[in-house]
Amino acid sequence: MKKALLYTLLLCGLGAQAQIGTRVFGKDPIINLENFDKQRVHWGYFLGFNSYDFKFDYKVDPGKDIIVKSTTGFNVGLVGNLRLFEYLDLRFEPGLYYTQRDLAFPNIQDAYDRLREVKSTYIHFPLLLKFSSKRVGNVRPYLTGGVSRTWNLDSNEFVKDDNITGDRFRMKTWTNNYELGFGIDLYFEYFKFSPSIRGVFSFDDEIIRDNDPSSPYTGNIGSMKTRAILVNFTFH
Q1: Domain check: are 21 and 84 in the same one?
Q2: Which UniProt keywords apply (predicted)?
Q3: Are 19 and 117 in a shared domain?
């Protein structure tokens, strides 16, 4: 009975959403927020999730690569939008990003020493250009691209002990990135909703090397750079 009731409510909800969707995004939709994008400046906020990874380059062939296990983190932040031209905007999207990556070093025998959890809390400062297409009804796709600077609050950069002395992994506090992505603006009666997906690619080698040049954690690493996928749901 509980399942039947749940399915009934779900079907009713989907039916209502379908009717609303036809009015908003159908063949002859009611045009919502017609002059919204003509504002010189407007604001918003976003919620979302992320998946962070590392790209490793090695000095010599390691035999087995360092294994990176990504987890799903979350994002929250603000959006400031400056209209430059009809199809071009400048956006500043400062946000808080929390994530975790688990590193496994296959050449280390001890199971405890082989694994390192890299927990990161980022304050992210992207400056992006938004290239919008022509609006069709209540839908407007767009592309984004730009640069960003990231502050890692959990970098452990200034910890003096090497990685082998504890369950930590040291990284640089500040990194610079470039970003590329796309999204779509959906115009509703009272607000604009913009789901988007964006890739983040670090310019910088982020690893802090151990004092021991033959360290099993850092000795053979030529560079370690962050790459990430961000999925944000923005409300204006």
Answers
A1: no
A2: Signal
A3: no
What tens digit of pLDDT does each residue of 169-205 get?
Answer: 889 999 999 999 999 999 999 999 999 999 999 999 9
**Quick check: 120 and 164 in contact, CB under 8 A?**
no
Its domain, for residue 139, covers 35-235
Residue 146: which CATH number? Answer: 2.40.160.20
DSSP per residue, 41-91: EEEEEEEEEEEEEEEEEESS--SSPPEEEE-EEEEEEEEEEEEEETTEEEE
- Angle at CA 67, nearest 5°, toward 63 and 71? 170
**Three-state secondary-structure class, residue 95:** strand
- Say whether both 11 and 77 belong to one domain: no
Residues 185 and 201 in one domain: yes
pLDDT band at 233 (very low <50, low <70, confident <90, very high): very high
Buried b (16+ CB within 10 A) or exposed e, 42-69: bebebebbbebbbebeeeeeeeeebebe
In eight-state DSSP terms, residue 7 is H
Question: How far apart are the C-alpha atoms of 82 and 88, rounded to whole Å?
Answer: 9
Domain total of the chain = 2
% of residues, the chain, pLDDT over 90: 67
* Among 128, 106, 215, CA closest to 179: 128
67 and 129 within one domain: yes
The single-letter code of the amino acid at 37 is: D
